[in-house]
Specification:
GO molecular function: metal ion binding; RNA binding; small RNA 2'-O-methyltransferase activity
Oligomer: single chain
Catalytic activity: small RNA 3'-end nucleotide + S-adenosyl-L-methionine = small RNA 3'-end 2'-O-methylnucleotide + S-adenosyl-L-homocysteine + H(+)
CATH architecture of the largest domain: 3-Layer(aba) Sandwich
Enzyme class: transferase
Largest sheet: 7 strands, antiparallel
Number of strands: 14
Structural class: alpha/beta
CATH topology of the largest domain: Rossmann fold
Order of helices and strands: EHEEEHHHEHEEHHHHHEHEHHEEHEHEE
Helix content: 25-40%
Number of domains: 2
EC number: 2.1.1.386
Family: Belongs to the methyltransferase superfamily. HEN1 family.
Length: 457
């Protein structure tokens, strides 16, 4: 994968001084996962472009996993061809001096805003173009996004979450590099290495001066820290209350800003615990986000994730580390391939089923089949369904009352529409249902997420 940075500042060749790289040379740097090459496709007084090209060894990164260092799960993977956390590591390694804002040869230049353009050739974004724009546009970038394929020969397989992204702004180089260092792994929503407490310090260091005021700071922190709720809480608390001497999060108010996803997961966990269930289905489990939290609760004896996508189940298996869990733990968790609109006898007899942020991905015409498969045939004692509240969308800067939150959503219900569906399903199949909101509540528009808890009569 390749990242290019271009400037038309005069003299444009000062970009070489800022990056501490000579425009007339091709330089190669060894990295734990391959090599980084720096070269300048163009360099004159009017325009200069620096390119950072990564050559990733797929075999080496899988061997590294076998040696206890997580990089990638399979020999065939997209890491050599996409801009991911490998690129963030390369930026820190190869452009470290520029990242920190130092330049001995041009001492005043690092803090100077100059016209810059960054082009990321193949950037993954699991939530598509809307997330890319929500992440970069508040930072003042003109953003150009184009859907791309790793290989056009596989176009018939359907759309893949890869985008060619160009960012333009008048900005200092070290600010641009810090944005890329943080936000590339955020968009990819993964990191090739295990994270620890020092990742919070990295986030706050490279997010200094911009992250605290970013409207998506909770999403950025949550994804940068690999969905680790403890580290995310720590980062958000430090941003909210400062980390200087004499001030600590514990001295501030008891409320902490928590990402909506984390609030949703915690609410579902609380309902499951209160319901005293032990065998749980996670229907439409995706990449295992909820399962990862359920595994940590010893009161749940059997956990089964079901999804229609084999590729997604493979990612869930990798992210849940099922191959390396102790045998006693791994016996508790199963991943099954299946559809939510057909009767599946394997799903019968469970205590509870969760359907979190899934129903809105089903075609409306197929909802009656979904209702029967879940409430009539699987028929768990407790069913938890969460879905977006469409009314709340107008409070998101990047959305509006007629815009859906995700490109794959087939619909989004208002509170009344969700209530009508839930009460009709409960009456038809012998359940009682209560409905509540999740997330900050607006007095007029309600909460961003709505949840129905069905209890079998």
């Amino acid at each position: 994968m390749i990242l290019t940075i271009t400037t038309t500042y005069r003299p444009a060749t000062d970009l070489g001084f800022l990056l501490h790289k000579h425009p007339d040379k091709v330089q190669t740097f060894p990295l734990p996962f391959g090599h980084a090459h720096v070269f300048f496709p163009e360099a004159d007084e009017d325009r200069c472009t620096a390119a950072l090209l990564l050559d990733i060894d797929s075999l080496d990164i899988v061997r590294s996993k076998a040696q206890g260092r997580k990089m990638a799960g399979h020999y065939v993977n997209d890491r050599p061809y996409t801009i991911s956390s490998f690129m963030a590591v390369a930026i820190a390694k190869v452009f470290g001096t520029a990242l920190s804002g130092h330049c001995r040869a041009r001492e005043a230049l690092p803090d100077q805003a100059i016209p810059l353009q960054a082009h990321l050739s193949v950037l993954p974004s699991d939530e598509g173009e809307p997330l890319i724009r929500r992440i970069f546009e508040p930072l003042g970038y003109e953003v150009e996004v184009q859907k791309t394929l790793l290989d056009p020969a596989f176009a018939e397989w359907g759309e893949a979450p890869y985008y060619a992204v160009t960012l333009r702004a008048v900005i200092s180089l070290h600010r641009l590099l810090n944005h890329l260092y943080v936000l590339i792994p955020v968009l990819d929503n993964d990191k090739h290495y295990y994270i620890a407490d020092d990742e919070v310090a990295k986030l706050l260091q490279h997010g200094k001066g911009w992250l605290n005021s970013h409207p998506e700071r909770e999403t950025i922190s949550w994804r940068y820290l690999k969905h680790n709720s403890r580290l995310t809480q720590t980062a958000l608390s430090r941003m909210a209350y400062g980390s200087q001497a004499g001030s600590s999060p514990e001295e501030g108010p008891s409320h902490r800003p928590v990402p909506l996803r984390e609030q949703r997961i915690q609410t579902v966990l609380d309902v499951l615990k209160a319901s005293e269930v032990s065998r749980i289905l996670d229907l439409g489990c995706g990449e295992g986000e909820l399962l990862r939290h359920l595994i940590q609760e010893p009161v749940f004896n059997e956990l089964v994730g079901v999804d229609v996508s084999l590729a997604t189940l493979a990612k869930a298996k990798d992210r849940l580390h099922l191959d390396t869990l102790p045998e006693r733990q791994s016996r508790r968790v199963k991943l099954w391939h299946g559809s939510l609109i057909y009767r599946d006898r394997r799903l019968e007899g469970f205590d509870a089923a969760t359907v979190t942020e899934v129903i809105e991905h089903i075609e409306p015409a197929l909802l009656p089949a979904f209702d029967r498969a879940l409430f009539e045939f699987a028929r768990p004692r407790v069913v938890i369904v969460t879905t977006p509240n469409r009314e709340y969308n107008r409070l998101f800067e990047s959305l509006g009352p007629d815009t859906l939150r995700h490109a794959d959503h087939r619909f989004e219900w208002t509170r009344q529409q969700f209530t009508d569906w839930a009460e009709q399903a409960a009456a038809q199949f012998g359940y009682q249902v209560r409905i509540q909101g999740i997330g900050p509540e607006d007095p007029v528009l309600g909460s961003p997420t709505q949840m129905g808890v069905f209890q079998r009569k």
